[in-house]
Design a protein that fits this description.
The chain has about 300 residues and is of the alpha/beta class. The chain is about 45% helix and about 10% strand.
């Protein structure tokens, strides 16, 4: 599979979401990964269909790179019954079990122990399956990150931790959140994990370093932690840009634009194919029904039963 085709596909899908968002048919918040596609693609192109992936609030790229259904993702964002979560989740709760994308959860770091649990289950069931957990550098400020590293290392779980360091948590730069000397890679190493860091805007580098980490994990030696630096081009949440509000400079954003993971990739045939796929996915979402009122009631009753 062509890495650049995959990245272009994700870029165009998210651009289509951002273009059509003001129509107000998509009513859930969206966290776009535009600018960060190389991490998703470079990692997932190393994975088997049977491998698991979990992610957080910024999950579109991970879901798509793992092979999640595009029409069902768009339908989910449209709040339609045909959505991958039957309209109960929205953009931050994607799932496609057939493709191995198990779940995304918006509470920062909450998917980390879920992924570790999946890894533990695979070990107990003696399944040859690796679970990859995608999270932002903000998630490493939650206590559960350390607990999860500890447990994964202790049990030698087949888990790949992927930290996408885009330097910001909403509007707060790393400098106001973590001491300069706090080295996330060193912390993971101290827990006994295989570690590596790299340029998250180079799909070749991400692909290679992930392949090496996976060889370690698949050999049963233990989990791995990789940190890739990258940059989100759009606002934290939503379809627009937010550099003008002053939390980061236009110069910084412009510098990162020159490091765009797609570089100067041009492929008119790919563009045509992707445009047709996107058009069909939006049509599917638009033409799908909303869940009926009774279906919501049923859901409420089943929730009540569980509790
Ligand atoms: C426990 C928790 N605290 C705060 C939030 C609000 N919140 C949503 S996204 C986000 C930023 C997280 O930053 P990072 O993990 O670096 O991911 P990025 O948005 O940069 O991809 C925050 C603080 C949340 N969802 N969950
Ligand atoms: Mg971040």
């Amino acid at each position: 599979m062509n890495h650049y085709y995959e990245m272009l596909r994700i870029r165009r899908i998210e651009e289509a979401i951002s273009l059509r968002y003001p129509e107000q048919e998509m009513r859930c918040p969206v966290h776009l990964s535009i600018g960060q596609e190389a991490v998703a693609v470079g990692v997932c192109q190393n994975l088997q269909k049977s491998d698991y992936v979990v992610s957080g609030h910024r999950a579109h790229a991970h879901y798509l790179a793992k092979g999640g259904s595009l029409p069902r993702m768009i339908a989910e964002i449209y709040g339609k019954k045909t959505g991958c979560c039957k309209a109960r989740g929205g953009s931050m709760h994607l799932t496609d079990l057939e493709s191995g994308f198990v779940a995304s959860t918006p509470i920062v770091a909450s998917s980390i122990p879920i992924g570790v649990g999946l890894g533990f289950a695979s070990l107990m069931k003696k399944e040859a399956r690796v679970t990859t957990i995608f999270f932002g550098e903000g998630a490493t400020e939650e206590g559960v990150w350390s607990e999860s590293l500890n447990f994964a290392a202790l049990k030698k779980l087949p888990v790949l931790f992927i930290c996408e360091n885009n330097f910001y948590s909403v509007y707060s730069p790393l400098s106001v959140r973590q001491p300069e000397a706090r080295d996330r890679v060193a912390i993971a190493k101290a827990h006994g994990l295989y570690v590596e860091c790299g340029d998250g805007n180079s799909v070749e580098e991400v692909f290679r370093k992930t392949g090496e980490a996976l060889a370690h994990i698949r050999a049963g030696i233990g989990p791995a932690f990789l940190e890739f630096t990258t940059y989100r081009f759009r606002e934290h949440c939503g379809p627009y840009f937010d550099n003008h509000i002053g939390y980061r400079s236009e110069e910084e954003a412009a510098l990162w634009e020159t490091r765009c993971p797609l570089k100067s990739y041009v492929d008119p045939r790919a563009e045509e194919q992707i445009a047709a796929e996107i058009k069909a996915a939006f049509l599917f979402a638009e033409n799908s029904p909303f869940p009926g009122i009774n279906e919501w009631q049923l859901q409420k009753e089943s929730i009540l039963c569980v509790h």
